[in-house]
Amino acid sequence: MHDLSMAYTPGVARICMAIHDDPRRAHDLTIKKNTVAIVSDGSAVLGLGDIGPEAAMPVMEGKALLFKEFAGVDAFPVCINTSSSEEIIETVIRLAPTFGGINLEDIKAPGAFEVEQALKEALDIPVFHDDQHGTAVVTLAALWNSLKLTGRDIADLSVVISGVGAAGMAVGRILIDAGVGEIVGVDSVGAVYGGRGDLNESKEWFAANTNPDRKMGTVHDVLHGVDAFIGLSAPDLLTAADLRNMGPEPLVFAMANPNPEIRPEEADG
């Protein structure tokens, strides 16, 4: 009974009042400091698309397992039944006192950018959009290692990014910051370039900072002679002929999920 009275009432009141007097102590006196919310609306799940919050749960549970296994962090899926960026923002702000960090997952662009920015401004805990920044970091790391292995300079590199959603946009930004010489993005319509006329605000930024020669056409057209392909788009997009059309010893990162733009055995064909 003594243990129960310490864990709950009346003993817990002392902890409550300590946090009331200094809310920062919640990080030390509760589970908050090691608890992350994995937030999704299920609108852009892996390669499955808009499958809704219930169907997105297994992915969020899998991500929670990775948090625990590799970082010892207790993560919990929070799948929200709305397609409104404003409602996602409001919901997360109201839930935030429970968590030490927010991991945004599988929210479609451009709404994902709005959600992330608003939450970063509103909250005093870390907010991380995994589809953007996680993908961008590992892509740059892989590219750096490829350049070391092949003896190339990043400033001389030409890259085509297939898919200019949340992940493609973030990869483009980090490659620009890293000093990649030339970047061309391709979406479902074709090459992204300034003045295309159908671009949202995010893609307008991308167009203004990439593709200086205003290359047009499909991904197959803009691949001619380039050094690297980064795929964040759709399965079975490329053929071996497309790779032969690239520059010598091309670097190919086929990362469409769950099935890549081209399989290794097809690339060798």
From TrEMBL:
Keywords, A to Z?
Oxidoreductase
Q: Name one GO molecular function term.
A: malic enzyme activity
Q: Per the database record, which ranges form the Malic enzyme N-terminal domain?
A: 2-120
**Domain Malic enzyme NAD-binding as annotated: residue spans:** 132-268
Cite the InterPro entries for this sequence. Answer: Aminoacid_DH-like_N_sf (IPR046346), Malate_Decarboxylase (IPR051674), Malic_N_dom (IPR012301), Malic_N_dom_sf (IPR037062), Malic_NAD-bd (IPR012302), Malic_OxRdtase (IPR001891), NAD(P)-bd_dom_sf (IPR036291)
Family matches, as Pfam families: malic (PF00390), Malic_M (PF03949)
The record's similarity note reads: Belongs to the malic enzymes family.
This protein's name = Malic enzyme N-terminal domain-containing protein
Q: Please give the organism.
A: marine metagenome
